[in-house]
Amino acid sequence: MSNEFSSLLMILLKQFIMKRTILTVIILASCFNLFSQASSNIPNVQIKNLQNEIVSSQELFDGKSLVILSFWATWCKPCIKELDAYNENITDWADETGVKLYAISIDNARSMSRVAPFVNGRGWENIEFYLDTNEDFKRAMNVINVPHTLLLDGNGKILWQHTSYTEGDEYELYDVIKEKSSK
């Protein structure tokens, strides 16, 4: 009987060790997955450029340059004023600090075809435009209303954000860009 008891005890011990090993591996794999996702603060959402090509939102970040994301819509008057101001200044800002500007239109699928002609008609040649027709990127970035501007580091960490637009707000953004780019 003691031999049977020893055998049973040995089997239970092996099962315990195996389960513990499997649990340890699962925990380590989960931790690795969490840390690898934490390296990018930007959600991986599909958006489109004005040529209707699909682009991952993470492709907008190079790990180095500061990035301005400006969420806007063609029907939003303050958005248009804000983008006019950004278009006038972004070339100088980029030359001085290396900042990149991406304007993300949240116009829906019905009005999406009007975005490119609208942009071209406004003469916004210094801004790179993308379409977020299902508002997936907007939701992922917790944007509620437009205009909504975010300044992010090269890895997608939000450094500053602002909702709405009043003439002169672009200078506040520029001050933050200069401060963050010098660090």
Topology at a glance:
Layout: H1 2-38, E1 46-49, E2 54-56, E3 67-72, H2 77-97, E4 100-105, H3 115-122, E5 128-131, H4 136-140, E6 148-152, E7 158-163, H5 169-181
Helix pairs in contact: 2-5
Give an account of the 3D structure:
By secondary structure, this protein is an alpha/beta fold. The protein has two domains: about 1-40; about 45-180, Glutaredoxin. The protein contains five helices and seven strands, in the order αβββαβαβαββα. It has a seven-stranded mixed beta sheet with strand order 2-1-5-4-3-6-7. Strand 6 and strand 7 (about 160-165) form a beta hairpin. Helix 2 (about 75-95) packs parallel to helix 5. It is elongated. The relative contact order is 0.17. Mean pLDDT is about 85; it is low at about 30-40.
Briefly say what this structure is:
By secondary structure, the chain is of the alpha/beta class.
